[in-house]
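Escalated from tier 1: 3-hydroxy-3-methylglutaryl-coenzyme A holo job.
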Amino acid sequence: MTIGIDQMGLYTPNFYIDLRELAQARGDDPDKYTIGIGQDQQAVAPSSQDVVTMGAAAARELTIDPERLGLIVVGTETGIDASKAAALTIQRLLGLNPWVRALEIKEACYGGTAGLMMARDYVAAHPERQALVIATDIARYGLATGGEVTQGAGAVAMLVTSNPRLLALADDSVHYAADIMDFWRPVYQDTALARGKYSTEQYLAFFERVWTQYQAQTGLTVADFAALCFHLPYTKMGLKALRLALPAADEAQQATLLARFDRSIQYSRRIGNIYTGSLYLGLLSLLELDDTLAAGARIGLFSYGSGAVGEFFSGTLVAGYATHLHRIDHAHLLDARAALSIPTYEQLFADKVPYGPADYTTNPAWFSGPFVLTGVVGQERQYQAN
Ligand code: HMG
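Tier 2 regenerated the structure:
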């Protein structure tokens, strides 16, 4: 029996900004954003979209067997309640089986991987069951901050089952954790604090550490991998990590890994950092845009969550995987989005659910997507199908 990812869903809000326009507005060279950082566009979430609406929208793409669903786990670092799990609201919005464990996991961008690994262990113990993993986030650093170019918004949903149809996960994870302050978000604010350069150094140090240990533990080398996917806070970050692994590969394999890496970053270039879902956005981009991968191909995945936890693990592609993807729907999701001017983005950025007890109403002019937050009444978020 294999265990792994059977289906994947994606959602990102209907609005974006062009990063060349943002560079101009901030007085930066656009090449810094598109080449130096490696981002073209950035998803913008109006206040009527939050981790619940986006997570539910991504999970709506999956076909879930109500009799078999036993676990719903949401990984997020931009949750909307310090106590209650977003998984419960998503369960209600989607009308999912109530005979489940439903919870939320937090460890920065590592939360999606933590959920995936929990789901894998759950299905290993209960092979008849299915587990729904949702990684959903809105990355906000603030207007005209160093991190602004690395914002984004979106969600990836994964159904984990036995005998999966997309990616069979190997039981080969190597994980490493250490208490560092590279990026964090105090509970009283919705924008993250980052020691930017230090965080990039730590990301690479964690990758080197787990990658070296992974090879020692498994006996596998870069030659065993058809593709490597990385957590993508911005796509240049993943490229820097890939470059650490490349020298051990021969020339032909280096070219293959670089070409496939390029396909794995296309969705991120247009959406930005979606924190917990970023690694899986990269995996989805690779699977949907690459037509050179064959069944049995081994894909390596590096997950990094600031704070920090790093994990390297792998999976092998299942025969026929391409027929279980939603490639055309996702192309439409991205292509149909509306571009915002920078002043309009700035207005949307400022219009947010207040950190306080006051009631709040979201603006229906920005309603889009299958679910929306209509406001907050008596300190309770109000959701509706759109
Ligand atoms: P910065 O100071 O604005 O940028 O910060 P820079 O000066 O370092 O330049 C960036 C790159 O652009 C450099 O390339 C420049 O050379 C290049 P590099 O040397 O890195 O290869 N550049 C140009 N290229 C072409 N034409 C030009 C040009 N000018 C410059 N004209 C930083 C960048 C990413 C640090 C900032 O945006 C930031 O703080 N972002 C937020 C933190 C972050 O994303 N950290 C990543 C690692 S931590 C992580 O992944 C976890 C995270 O996802 C959160 C979580 O776990 O929850 C963030």
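Residues 29, 31-32, 35-37, 77, 108-109, 146-147, 149-150, 182-183, 194, 196-197, 199-200, 203, 231, 233-234, 236-237, 273, 275, 304-306 surround 3-hydroxy-3-methylglutaryl-coenzyme A (CB under 6 Å).
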